[in-house]
Known about the structure:
Blueprint: H1 2-8, E1 10-11, E2 20-26, H2 45-51, E3 55-61, H3 67-76, H4 80-83, E4 97-98, E5 101-102, H5 110-116, E6 120-125, E7 142-145, H6 151-159, H7 162-166, E8 171-177, H8 191-194, H9 197-203, H10 210-215, H11 217-222, H12 224-251, E9 258-264, E10 269-270, E11 276-277, H13 284-287, E12 288-289, E13 291-294, E14 302-309, H14 313-321, E15 338-339, H15 342-347, E16 357-361, E17 366-371, E18 374-379, E19 384-389, H16 405-421, E20 428-429, E21 432-433, H17 436-444
Parallel strand pairs: 2-8, 2-9, 3-14, 6-7, 6-8
Antiparallel strand pairs: 1-15, 3-12, 3-13, 4-21, 5-20, 9-13, 10-11, 16-17, 17-18, 18-19
Amino acid sequence: MLFFFLCGATAGHEAKKPFNIVLITIDALRADHLSCYGYQRTTSPVIDSIAEEGILYKNAIAPSSWTSPSVASLFTSVYPTNHGVINNVGHRKNAKRSMPEIFSEQLTTLTESLKAQGYATFAVASNPHLRKQCGFGRGFDYFECLDGQPAVTVNNTLYKWEETIRTSEKFFIWIHYFDPHYPYFPQSPWVNEYTPQSLTQKMNFSRKPLREIVRLIPDLENNSDMLGNLIGLYDSEINYVDSFIGKFINKFNVGDNTLLIITSDHGEEFLEHHLLGHGYSLYQASIHIPLIIKLPGNNQKEIDEKYVTLLDIMPTIFDLLGCAPPDHILGTPLLSKKPLFPWIAKVLPWKDTPRHIFSELHTLSHKTVLSSGWKYYYAGTSEEEYLFNIETDPLESTNLIEEEKEKGRLLKNTLFNWLDHAKRYPTTKSPHTISKEEQEKLEALGYIGTVENPRAQ
């Protein structure tokens, strides 16, 4: 009994209690387009300033390149294979009725757990797939889902509850901003620093449905100015949402008594592998996301290079609270704690066991596993296999599946063994009739009626 007591004795990050919690998720935000992650443009001064006082995780991986599966994993700390949320409200094909999955009530959400701990809970989610009917409102006292509205509307919606938030003994706020998601609008003044205004007006990308942009892939690959304009629009949207994160923080004086977490649901591709957008692959452009944690009462900068996943957010919060999370979670508390007796760590047989992080795209039967800088990627639709060393080849340009057969075999076995034995929770369906107006909105956002990206089959 003494041995197990000593193993559990730790000293590390400590949080002031009680503390407020703010979780900010930014749709379609890839990590390498934030200046604090080394991007050459200053796209994120507010987020950068938070990272200067917090922990920046260099290798955070989204559990999917779709919104619904990733966010369901964030709030339940299990993978898409476990919770069964595979589709968004809309589909890639034309449809008048959709049947998105609702994750099981056997899975206690982060919000439900916090509410049980006495937190007042608030959320504004600006993505039509995160609606209450799909389970994302579970545990929230105040919840509003917006159909892709800009950051200014998201903030103003949250401000309606300002008095209630301020008078709460402790609160949990979740904000899901949409702005870096297609369509990318030219946000001033930043866009003019990134691309000529004349080209922005000529291309008029923000007024074109995604299916038209996809058809332009051959032109974009052969015209760096055109592609640069599209990326410039995207980057200006990051600046825009960053500025409204700053406005929110100032409005509520988010400071020492708040746990602040900033992350994303997935990334965005700009022809790194002849693909645009997201939900078509599990390449790093689609699943390498930012994760920054600012602890209550802490202003010490840290950079953490271990591979982590959105599933880790829920157990990290409960580790800080000193509370046991629900039994079903698969994530790991992120804040490293050093044993009070360092010699114990040297004799623990599992201390060097590498961690495996999974990501899935069920709509195309794609799946991948990452461990210690290596990534095995199985493209189920084509049955192609890839092995990348993403430490030395972050753009995944060289497939090492033949050169490193043993490494590929071990990771493949790990991936498929996990899939074979993963617990699967029952889902229900949320029948949803898509109105003509909603269909037009979803089509513009690229969710239905979209021409498929080449090579995404």
